[in-house]
Amino acid sequence: MDTHHHLRDNPEQCRDILAQLNDYLDGELAEALCRELEQHLAECPDCRTVYDTLSHTIHIYRALRDTPAELPQEVEERLIRRITISLNAG
Ligand SMILES: [Zn+2]
């Protein structure tokens, strides 16, 4: 495994990271995976943008509901789709 390989040339890893973002934000991701994810976010501006957007959306949603809640699946799917499209376009 070449860890120095440029992450932006590795959209599959980005897809893995994005798939784990919800668990990460829910605090349900295993610690080792959290560190992997955080390292990827530090090195990948695309995924960091997604993370910022998603965490912001969840924050707003929870504030509006005033109760801890999961992001509605419909919203989540729309977000992921938009993100995937922009990643593929970039
Ligand atoms: Zn990435």
Keywords, please?
90 residues; mainly alpha; 0% strand; globular; binds zinc ion
Could you give the order of the helices and strands?
A: HHHH
Tell me the number of helical segments per DSSP (H or I, 4 or more residues long). 4
Number of domains: 1
Q: Assess the beta-strand content as a share of residues.
A: under 5%
Count the E strands.
0
Question: Can you give a write-up of this model?
Answer:
With 90 residues, this protein is mostly helical. It has one domain. It contains 4 helices and no strands. α1 (11-25) runs parallel beside α3 (45-65), α1 (11-25) runs antiparallel to α4 and α2 packs across α3 (45-65). The radius of gyration is 14 Å and the shape is globular. Zinc ion binds at residues 7, 14, 17, 40, 44, 46-47.
Summarize the helices and strands and which ones pair or pack.
Layout: H1 11-25, H2 31-43, H3 45-65, H4 73-89
Bound molecules: zinc ion.
Quick structural gist:
The chain is an all-alpha fold.
